Amino acid sequence: MKLGDLAELAGRNLREALLRNALTTLGIAVGVASLVAMLSLGVGLQEVASKRLVRAGQFDKIFVLSGPGFRGFGDGPRPPMKTGSATGESRPLDENARQRIARLPDVLEVYPTVQFTGDVRYAGRTTFVRVSGVPPSDRTSENFENIRGAFFSGLSAEEVILPVEFARRLSNPANEQPGAMLGRVLVLRYPERRALASPKTGQRKAPEAAPEGAGADPDFGIGFSVALREKQLRVVGILEPLPPAGPNAPGRIIIPLQLAESLNVVKAGDLSDVTRAPGEVSMYQSLTVRVSSPLQVAPAEDAINQMGYTTISPMDNARSLRRFFAILDMFLGIFGSLALAVASLGIINTLVMAILERRREIGILKALGAGDRDIRQLFFAEAGAMGLLGGVLGVALGWAIGRAIHFGTTIYLRRHEMTGENVWSVPWWLVVGAVGFALLVSLAAGIYPAARAARLNPVEALRYE
Predict the structure, then answer these.
(1) Distance (Å, rounded) from C-alpha 442 to C-alpha 347?
(2) 346 and 273, same structural domain?
(3) Residue 183 region, left (φ>0) first, then alpha (ψ -120 to 50), else beta?
(4) Does a structural domain hold residue 311?
(5) Same domain for 202 and 338?
(6) Phi and psi, residue 184, nearest 5°
(7) Which residue has the higher pLDDT, 412 or 212?
(8) Cα–Cα distance between 30 and 28 in angstroms, integer?
(9) How confident is the model over 333-376, as pLDDT tens digits?
(10) Residue 60, domain member (yes or no)
């Protein structure tokens, strides 16, 4: 049977029982719509999570710690760590280590984590704060997308960016809006680490980097002194509230990283660092390594582990996140396919009923020379037509359901004073896959009716009426 004749017969047969075939096609459309709606929700949530991490600038970063015993990220559960120390001992994370890591391939920058506590004096009031230093590369990160004002004007500019809650807290006694803090000057008081003076000459040792493994100078001794210092900082930006992103999330107030390093502030681990490296070598709590692309994170992380340092990579969390969403998509696809499986039963029922109603037609076709293969192709064509049309309608219906979910979610988030997120996405592969899956299920459902129709005896079929 020619292809044109086959299409004409299939179309005519579908039009003769229009209501029944339309209801069967609608059942397929509903099944495909449920599948598309569920999978588009899973894909949308995955894209939201990925975009958040990408915008936060975390996918191309590695956080380097001195050893597995580091507890610098709070008292909660530790993020996944990789260590290259077989004995579990900590290695000094000093300036020499920073330079060695910076020379690795595809490493763009290596900068320390500088966070400390101090006091801010403004309008006659003193407020206890936590200070964080951020590098210039953070200008494009998500943390500074909603900034009112500007980013720092220079690498070591004596400027500060305040979160809006802290700016409101400072400006409330004067009944001012948080934006009024822009251009104002704060006074930051902090503890400065100072080298010990020589008991012989009274001079202080210059804070130059010592070679790795250098010991203490007997003329200066071991340790340091602490002096209280003040620094005037001009407010250049106000940050809208954002969820923290990564271990180096900005603190209560933010200053340029180079300025933070130059302050030589006393850190929490300085006393233990003195015993491990008595010289005036710069010791760091942790280092952040930024590589050229997320694909270079794993090689750089392995190279740093071989140096004996412990690393944390947000990419490890991203892999776990992708695994979670893969499992979620699988379950959503299974539940969405159940409706399509029910719709396939409707196809079988429709075509079996068509066999009973068209026995005479099948007998005539066989009497005119149509073979079993032609009869099977005819029923397959009818099943495929219903599956293809149902798949297209189902994708359109699933798209409409997704838009409704997105609209409702946006309204809900805005009512709770949160930014709306697109939790729904229908990529091209989902459209093609859904239509193809509907067609495949329909053809599979047509196997039994087609085989039953092909087995009909033409003589008995002609005597049926």
Answers:
(1) 7
(2) no
(3) left
(4) no
(5) no
(6) -75, 165
(7) 412
(8) 5
(9) 777 777 777 777 777 777 777 766 666 677 777 777 777 777 77
(10) no
